[in-house]
Amino acid sequence: MRYEEACKKDLKFLSKVDRTIITDVKAAVDILLDYELLPDEYKDHPLQRLYSGYNDFHVRDPEKGEKPDDKNDVVIYKLQNSGKKLLLVRVGSHLKLFHDQYSSK
């Protein structure tokens, strides 16, 4: 498994806010590496446009009926070499990663 530099920064930032994010991401990644497929609750799906060829899965979602906020965390990734290698690209809220609401620096 490899991490893009931006993903390392994302995880470092998020772990300062909530240390359990690391555990949640690792659990999902372990499933993905073992089975190349995540359970439905992760809402894994292919991306388009800028991230065409990549997927994302949801680590945390707002409760039903609640509005998305910074706790709506997703992981952008790419499986490589027929699912034998995993590249983690970004981790963060849907707003941050897809709507450029604030900088990852």
What percentage of amino acids are in beta strands? 15-25%
Spatial shape: globular
Q: How many distinct beta strands?
A: 5
Rounded to the nearest angstrom, the radius of gyration is 13 Å
Strand order of the largest sheet: 1-5-4-3-2
> Structural class, judged by helices and strands?
alpha+beta
* CA(first)-CA(last) distance: 23 Å
Could you estimate the helical fraction of the residues in percent?
25-40%
Low-confidence stretches: 101-105
Structural description of this entry:
The chain starts with a strand and ends in a 6-residue tail after the last helix. The radius of gyration is 13 Å and the shape is globular. It is α+β, with helices and mostly antiparallel strands. Strands 1-5-4-3-2 form a five-stranded mixed sheet. It has helices spanning 5-17, 20-35, 94-99; strands spanning 2-3, 45-46, 55-58, 73-80, 85-93. It is 33% helix and 24% strand. Mean pLDDT is 83; it is low at 101-105. The longest helix is centred in the first third of the chain and has 16 residues, at 20-35.
